[in-house]
Amino acid sequence: MKYTANTWKFGLLIVAAMLLIGLFLIIQAGGNWDYILPRRGKKILAIVLTGGCIAYATTIFQTITNNRILTPGIMGLDSLYMLFQTFAVFVFGSTHISFVNKNLNFTISVILMSLFALLLHRFMFRKEQGRNIYLLLLVGLILGTLFQSMSSFMEVLIDPNEFLVLQGKMFASFNNVNTDLLLISILAILAILLYARKFTKYLDVLSLGRDHAVNLGLDYQYIVKRLLLVVMIMVSISTALVGPIMFLGLLVVNLAHQVFRTHRHVVLIWGSVLIAVVALVGGQLIVERVFTFATTVSVIINFIGGVYFIYLLLKENKSW
Questions:
Q1: What pTM value is reported for the model?
Q2: Which of the four, 139, 214, 217, 311, has the lowest number of CB atoms within 10 Å?
């Protein structure tokens, strides 16, 4: 019965996503299909890639940490991304190739965040330290705060006109996404998914906790370390592609838990991805057709996600 109910829910989400995507592609087209479809198609592809990466990474991250109010953003990757963008403008100016050239900016951002993730992962998982994943989260949180403070310091000092250019990097945007970046992102994501495939099948057991997973014969440390690397690289790619979206993962994964009422991760991951696509496409439609680009989709998502985060905290507080 539960399987049938979840099948219907999947069907409704797929229909909702397809309807929103279709509406997004054809609304106010005016017959200019040769111009409109490629531009809007790139936006849709960027939305699917970003929503999929964030939903996938957050589902795995919450399972590893056994906490439904944590997201990969706590590791400081978003703050590191903004630190690089701010540093590039502060030192070289907003007209420098490292900031203007989207391909170069994307490549440097992904490499920088991936190196940070690898170094953090390597130092935190040495010997017995690897047994405490919360030490990793604490260090990531502290470094993220440090990066954010350094960014704020440089933002105060730069020229106001330069800051206006930098401000565009502070919020996720699906406008003018480079096609080359989409192709690179697709190839990188496919490679990561193939690598992660042999580890994600253990997520149902990992959700039982470390002790139960070890008793059931899993090499807990080995699997968790690999999955954390997958999470960090996925978040790095999505952030470098369109910019940071803080609360999207928290919102869609928790909604997937409430909608599907299951602990099977094959259901939760795909459910989260579909909810993320619906939320982002719907949010982008609102931004373009209601607010006429006066705001960004990340502002809407972060507002709703922030309210939902407070609701989750109050709900957990009552349960205690």
A1: 0.88
A2: 217
